Structure formats: structure tokens, C-alpha cells
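ok trying again, last paste got cut off:
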Amino acid sequence: MDYRLIPYDKTGVAAELSTFMREGGVTEHHAILHVEPRGELFAGQLARLMEAVKALTAEPDCTGARIVFMRLFLSDAANQQQIIDELGVMKDACNACSISCIQQPPLDGSKVAAWLYLVHDMDVERLQDGLVIASHNGYKHLWQMGLCCPKGNSAAQTESLLVGYEELLKQHGATLADNCIRTWFYVRDVDTQYAGMVRARRENFVLQGLTEKTHYIASTGIGGVPADTMAIVQLGTYALTGFLPQQQRYLYAKTHLNSTYEYGVTFERGTVVDFGDRSHVFISGTASINNRGEVEHVGDIVKQTERMWENVGALLAEADSSFDDVAQIIVYLRDTGDYATVKALFEQRFPQTPYVITLAPVCRPAWLIEMECVAIRTNKNPEYRDF
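nice, full thing came through this time. structure:
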């Protein structure tokens, strides 16, 4: 993995870029963009961010790359989404990508940060329903972000979202059980609404043949506020078609973590997708937990961070990977007062890896911090087609 820090001094935006490149193969980039607060309104920060996105796609390493998806971390989604729509500033740079906006305020004092995924030499198409399909070498990568269904309680909204997504997959010859690789569930007021989402997901999964005896899906379930004030749950998804079942496997790290179904939730700790030339490793939201499902180091943000890293490291090792292969990290904090401490810890441990730290409570109040990440490592497997 190659890492670069690209400061755009004029716009006051810093782009942390990771690049995975193999000769003759698809090049992939993950980028985290941080906006320097300059005392202006959100519209000004957004304009500077989008100017930096355009500059990034013009960088020599990124020239010709297509943005597959962009996630905006907002400080006030209900008001800022309206400004985004009114200004239309994202259309030129991102008209073919899947866009997710969620209120998870960046804790560096800015009103917006962004995570981008870019690829070279792939056909990228955005359909009218917002589904983005990136195609290459017989694979189709289906990205659908920012899904909401603002009717009913958290359980009803989750059920509606999953049923709608399953219908969408069916239109593309796919199913939730066979093709969905990764999900993100953002839950408004997670301390009270998370249980309804978990229950509805579990019930839906049973109908789809997803149980503790089969498999689940890598996922993050975390606090996040949708822009629609009636929406309690927002869903983001990634699915893949054209691969063999044996190209997908799941991570457990049972020396460090227990099976999620033991405490009533239904997701995989991590998922690996093996291609001929590389492997993608998707690490679910991971916190300071032991292999009995208990919170470790209650009340201690430093020790919880260290245990979280240990757990993620064990999952990566099970995937024959390491932190050296990590392309991006998202860090979720419950307490803004822990930001300076966590920032210093991450700066020391990950001086080059792109990451963003946001305000987003974890599903158990005792968990002070959670992280997720994506890793890409070289693979040479002639049984599978290259990415």
C-alpha cells in the first residue's frame, strides 16, 4: 500500500490518499479529506471540499480515476443536506458515484469531512435508482448508499430498507445471502433505537437463510443521524456478482472475540473477498470486547483504544493481512472530550494511514470507541479472475 498526504493549501483541505496498484491490473484509491475550519459557513467548507475533490482527481496518480462512492460526514445533516441539494456543487465531480451523507460530526472542528473510493480502468455507471455499478473482468460491484425509509419505528424502517434492498438485488440476479459483502446501519439515538434495528435485521436474515449455522454479513451498526428528520435508520450497502462462493470467507478471531449471535446481533466480524491478484478485507465495526462478549476496560479510553487495535489486528492476521495493508479507517467516538487523546494515539500508531475521527456513539454505552477499516493485499490465485 502506498500512502500520500496531499495538502491543498489554497483550499485549506488535506487529502490522505492510499493507493493499491498492480501492473496490468485495476488501481484502487481510498482518500480521506479533511477541511480546515476557517470560520465560514457550511457552504464555504463544502465548496472548498469539492474543489479539493476535483484537484485530487487531477493528481498524476489519480488522473482518469472514477469515483465509485463518497461518504460525507456532516455536523448538522438536516440543514446541510438542504444546502448540498440547493448548491448542486457535487454534481460535476460526483455525478456517477454513490453518495452518502450522515450526521457524524468530524471532531477536528470542521463541519464536513469525506471518504472517497476511486478506481481506474473500470466501467462505472450510476442508475436512476442511485445504484452504482462498477464492472470489470466479469465482476460487478454494486454500491448503494444513503438508503432511508422514514416511516415507522426503527424495526419497521429496518425491515422496509432490507426488503427494498433485496428486491433491488433480485433485479441484478443477486441475493442478500449470496452477494451482499458489507452493510452500514446508521441509527438515530442509538442508545434507544438500536435494539429495534437489531431485532428486525435478525428476523429478516432468518427469512433469507442467514443464521448462525450459515453466515452473516460484515457490518457496522453505529450512531448516526440521517438528514430526513423522520428517518431513524440509514443503510449503506456493497454487493458483488460474478464471483465463486469460495472466494468469500469470514473472520472470527476467536482468541479475542466471540460470535456476535451469542449476544443477539447478526453480523460477521470481518469478510475477505479473494480475487486472482488481490484480496479485499472488510473489518466490521470493532470495539474493546473480549471473547466472552464483555466490554473490556470500562471507562478507560486509552486501554479501550489499545484493545480495539488488538482485536482488529487479530482479524487482519486471520485474513493473512496486517495494518500495513489498511487503506482507510473510520473511528467513532462517544465523547468529544476523548478526541485529543485518541487523535494523539492514532497519530503515533498510524502516521500515514488515511483515517477520520467522528462523533458517533457505539451501540453499548460502555464502549467509548469503535473503528472499522478496509485492507487490500496482494494475492496470487490462478483459480480466480483478477479484480
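cool. The chain has a mean pLDDT of 96. The first strand starts at residue 2 and ends at 8.
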